[in-house]
Write a structure and sequence with these properties.
By secondary structure, this protein is of the alpha+beta class. The chain folds into two domains: 35 residues, no CATH class; 142 residues, Nucleoside Triphosphate Pyrophosphohydrolase. Helix content is 23%, strand content 42%. It has three helices and ten strands, in the order E-E-E-E-E-E-E-H-E-E-E-H-H. It has a four-stranded mixed beta sheet, with helices on both faces. The chain has a three-stranded antiparallel beta sheet with strand order 1-2-3, with no helix packed on it. Strands 6-5-10 form a three-stranded antiparallel beta sheet. Helix 2 packs across helix 3. The longest helix is centred in the C-terminal third of the chain and has 20 residues. It starts with 5 loop residues before the first strand and ends with a helix. The model has no long low-confidence stretch (mean pLDDT 93).
């Protein structure tokens, strides 16, 4: 069965600092027509940053859409259409936490919410962290606090509902899998 929808038209309804919102008219596989509301986003990066004590870097910040504090891995959006995910991740790690890393590995690409948004995130792993020689300033509207936690503490924070951010849950799952593989390989 062909599940592909055919886009008939697209109209931009809103353009903001981070996102834009388009309304598209599509033809469904059965020939019927409907509308889709699509949030377009430049893309983002996030990283599982692990220190020498085998702790993960987490960032606390207020998230207005949730009306609550959120605890997340370091992350941010691509600032320019030609900025590479790795360059963006290095910048964000410095801006949000004041660190640089001697090693980065791209782990995965994933979509945050494909039902209505095209935002693709690139997840990196990094270690060999050192204080950045020159700390970049965080965005004017960002107020951040950092913390380091081991895997057991992170898992408890998930169980207690303290960590509810999907990219962070995904990264913590990767970290747990990495540790399990390391333990079985010896």
């Amino acid at each position: 069965m062909n599940l592909q929808e055919r886009e008939l038209s697209r109209e931009t309804k809103f353009v903001g600092k981070i996102i834009s919102v388009d309304v598209t008219q599509v033809e469904l596989p059965n020939g019927q027509k409907t509308e889709r509301e699509i949030v377009t986003h430049p893309g983002a990066v996030c990283c599982l940053a692990i220190n020498e004590q085998n702790e993960c870097l987490l960032i606390k910040q207020w998230r207005s859409p949730l009306n609550r504090l959120s605890i997340e891995i370091p992350a941010g959006k691509l600032d320019a259409t030609d900025e590479s995910p790795l360059s963006a991740m290095k910048r964000e790690l410095n801006e949000e936490a004041g660190y640089q890393a001697g090693y980065f590995e791209e782990l995965n690409n994933f979509f945050s919410s494909p039902g209505f948004s095209d935002e693709m995130l690139t997840l990196f792993y990094c270690d060999t962290l050192t204080a950045a020689k020159t700390k970049l300033a965080a965005d004017d509207d960002e107020f951040l606090e950092q913390m380091w936690v081991d895997l057991a503490t992170a898992k408890q924070m998930v169980a207690d509902g303290e960590i509810v951010d999907l990219k962070t849950l995904f990264a913590l799952s990767y970290w747990e899998t990495m540790q399990l593989r390391s333990a079985t390989n010896g």
